[in-house]
Specification:
By secondary structure, the chain is α/β, with parallel strands linked by helices. It has helices at 5-14, 25-34, 94-104, 123-137, 156-170, 193-197, 206-216, 253-265, 290-305; strands at residues 48-56, 59-67, 74-80, 107-112, 144-154, 176-182, 242-249, 270-279. An 8-stranded mixed sheet has the order 1-2-4-3-5-6-7-8, with helices on both faces. The longest helix has 16 residues, at 290-305.
């Protein structure tokens, strides 16, 4: 299909400045923290939004709790934002999380894990798992039920969500009903056909993804760690059902398909949706990609309605 009009509009603005990969992580982080919040995004009201701080190994992180309209107790959705483990925060995923909470009827806990390069792997993974366990242990306090937890996220957040399912199985941790993955990173080897096809000019350039990856890990051997590249996890047959939503014009398309196929071959139920004309990053830019964001949330809600709780 090529690029949608909204994708073209976004890319024109994205490439009007210096390439992110030509700057340092600190320069990009400072620029993004100074950028004004975009006003006027139409999302449904949420009954309650609360910011909290929770303890993690050697520190604290923020979480944002979205409680939907209704009496509850509600099932849970733990959400991890994108940004290549280097960028992003609770604000970049705020609109999408509000929509998810209200449309799914779940308490959404959005996790502000610590970022690289100040906190490289495995810190973002450890923070993410601590938040998952905290939500599980505090379900009553959240007017939620710990027997129905979904993990999800976009891009690097989709990567972390998938890793959470592996960690929970290995550690006999919280029971996860499903994983909802929006253009997830599943394998940091940068060699698929989609990495070549969309290497430049589509927002998440190949060089930019390498830039993110090299800030995230401490050495090249860690790229092959299954907690960095969950596609490399050998036995996935006990992982929860998944929905994978892909952007058509994205270097990550092929590894999303590879993860889908790996789960299917292991007998795990998987839904897959590719949004035509879309590009990586649409879910954290609802002001420009409202239709794509709503389509994504609708697909997740429909999928979750068919997933049995454990």
């Amino acid at each position: 299909m090529g690029l949608s009009n909204s994708s073209k509009q976004y890319l024109d603005a994205f490439y009007s400045g210096p390439l992110l990969q030509s700057l340092s992580a600190q320069q990009v982080q400072e620029a993004m923290s100074a950028a004004p919040l975009i006003e006027g995004i139409e999302v449904p009201p949420v009954a309650k939004v609360e910011n909290r701080t929770i303890s993690v190994n050697d520190g604290e992180i923020g979480i944002r709790i979205y409680t939907p309209t209704g009496r509850g107790p509600f099932p849970l959705f733990i959400y991890y934002h994108g940004g290549g483990w280097v960028l992003g925060d609770l604000e970049t995923s705020d609109a999408g999380c509000r929509l998810l909470a209200e449309q799914s009827g779940r308490v959404v806990v959005s996790v502000d894990y610590r970022l690289a390069p100040q906190y490289r792997f495995p810190v973002p993974v450890e923070d993410s798992y601590s938040a998952l366990c905290w939500a599980n242990d505090h379900a009553d306090e959240l007017n939620a039920v710990a027997t129905d937890i979904v993990v999800g996220g976009d891009s690097a957040g989709g990567n972390l969500a998938t890793v959470m399912t592996i960690l929970s199985e290995v550690n006999n941790g919280p029971s996860i009903s499903a994983q909802a993955l929006i253009y997830p990173v599943t394998n940091l080897d940068f060699t698929t056909s989609s990495y070549e096809k969309f290497a430049e000019g589509h927002g998440l350039d190949k060089d930019l993804m390498i830039w993110f990856g090299e800030y995230y890990v401490k050495n090249k051997e860690e790229f092959k760690n299954s907690y960095v590249s969950p596609l490399l996890h050998e036995n996935v047959e006990n992982l929860p059902p998944a929905i994978i939503i892909a952007a058509e014009n994205d270097v990550l398309v092929d590894e999303g398909i590879q993860y889908r196929d790996k789960l299917k071959e292991a007998g795990v139920s998987v839904d897959y949706l590719q949004l035509e004309g879309s590009i990586h990053g649409y879910f954290s830019n609802m002001s420009l990609f409202a239709d794509e964001t709503k389509t994504t949330v609708d697909a997740i809600v429909k999928f979750l309605s068919l997933v049995p709780t454990k």
